[in-house]
Amino acid sequence: MSISLKRTQAILVKDYKEFSRNYAISITLIFPILFALLFKSASPPLTEAIGFLLNTSFVILTSLVQACLIAEEKERNTLRSLMMTPATTMDVLIGKSALVFVMSAVVLAISTYILGYEPASLWAFAAAILLSIILYIAAGTICGLFSKTLLEASLSILPVAIVFTAAPGGAFLADDYPIFKVLDYMPSSQLVHLLAVSNTGFTTGELLKPLLIILAWTVVLTIVSVVLYQRRLKDE
Fold it and tell me: Which carries the bigger pLDDT value, residue 101 or residue 153?
């Protein structure tokens, strides 16, 4: 499927203008930075702090903003109009995801720098963050497609927040309730495992396993979001 850079850029610029005018959504940019400043002053265990910061930010920044951008198009009845233009499905989805991707990457880089976190492997950490951003963009797209208004989009990410963000906490219940062991395979749990890898004496397997699981989640959710996007447009 061909991708037009001009069409993608046009959608990106359009989303940027709408995002900058919507202060209720754009304020989400400061939350990860505020969390980082708060955790740094409180001096909690660094791994727990960075894990909570990243997994929470993926929901309240990446997924929420993406869901709202999609829902806003539906609320204004312009999403279907985009499909009727020469822009392909990938043009629209990449164009509408690019702004969120860049914002998330920049804000999380600043927040990580504020906390002073030093990963065991910078490349593995960067790959996990970039894959997670794409994953949560896909999750936000799915939520946005099933929302008709911005309010519905804001509420639709609650399942994402509950299932993904709370998954690492399931490890505390796994000993008493074995069924909760499945939560260990959630991308948020795997990210925490990756963050916990020691700077010294780590093996490639310790880094590779979480990355592969996060990659699998990313691929699956991205495919689901593309398929649902095409089906929802045909249904409306």
Answer: 101
DSSP-derived secondary structure letter, 168: G
User: 130-145, pLDDT tens digit by residue?
Assistant: 999 999 999 999 998 8
Instruction: State pLDDT tens for residues 27-73.
Output: 888 999 998 888 887 665 577 788 889 999 999 999 999 998 888 87
State mean pLDDT over 168-187. 75
First to last CA, the chain: 23
Domain range annotation of the chain: 5-235
What's the distance, CA 126 to chain centroid? 14
Residue keyed to tokens 């702004």: 99
d(CA 195, CA 207): 9
Q: What is the pTM for the complete model shown?
A: 0.90
Q: What is the CA radius of gyration of the chain?
A: 18
Asked if residues 62 and 138 have their Cβ atoms less than 8 Å apart, the reply is no
The DSSP symbol for 181 reads G
Tokens describing residue 62: 């990446």
User: Tokens at residue 137, please?
Assistant: 């963009």
φ and ψ at residue 120, rounded to 5 degrees: -65, -40
What percent of the residues of the chain are helix, what percent strand, and what percent coil, each to the nearest 5?
80, 0, 20
Number of other CB atoms surrounding residue 132 within 10 Å? 25
**Please, which residues have CB within 8 angstroms of residue 209's CB and are 6 or more apart in sequence?**
190, 193
pLDDT digits (tens, 9 = 90+) for 144-165: 888 888 888 888 888 888 888 8
